[in-house]
Structures are given as C-alpha cells and as structure tokens.
Amino acid sequence: MERIHSTVLDLLEKVGFADPTPGIIEVVSAAGGWISADGRLCYPRGLVEDVIANATRSFIWPGQSPEHDLDIDGHCIGKSLAFAYVTPEYAAPDGIFEIEILGEKRAAQVLTQPTYDPKNERLQL
Description:
Elements: H1 2-14, H2 22-30, E1 34-35, E2 41-42, H3 45-54, E3 59-61, E4 70-72, E5 96-101, E6 104-109
Antiparallel strand pairs: 1-2, 3-4, 5-6
C-alpha cells in the first residue's frame, strides 16, 4: 500500500493533471503547485500529504431528501460488500449462496437491513 501511495504522489508531482480549470490552478498554485512546461497542473508531495492528513474524517453524504442523508463518521462494517441483482430463486431474505469474484468463490448472503449502523442500534453480542 505504501508503494501505491508513493507512486501516486510521484505522479501528482511529476506528471500532474491535464486541462485544469482556472479556479483549481489558482487554488493549487497559491498552495505551492505549478503548471509544467506541457501545461499540466503539478502538486507538490508535501501539499498532497498535508491535505490528506488534515482531511475531515466525517461528513454528510446527502440523500435525495434529508431523511436519507448518510452521516459518514469513520465507522465501518468490517466486511467487503458486493451489490448485485440476483434472480428470484436467490433473492429470499437472508438467502445464502456462492458467487465468484475475480475468479475466487465466495459465500454471499442477501441482506434485508442496511449494513451501516453508526449508532450501534443493531449491536449483537
């Protein structure tokens, strides 16, 4: 993971982004970025690391109406999720079946409740 992170920082600093908008050029340039000889907006490594370090860890993901807003506050469900449409014979609530992901067979279950539970209202012991 560290290698990927480092490579991305290198790309942002050495290659940059093509076709930046004037507004983003102004913001990034004021923070130490620059336009390369070929017109790409480059981000200094330190700037990107500072932005990541100071990024908010919680925010509201707006739904189509306020009652569907999702408060993202660092909680996670501790599982990988895959979303799919299944044929009716597999769609029974809490039905368990096997799927293939990237060539590997995995157990799958039809969920009838949301997986996100920030208030631990469905906490099980």
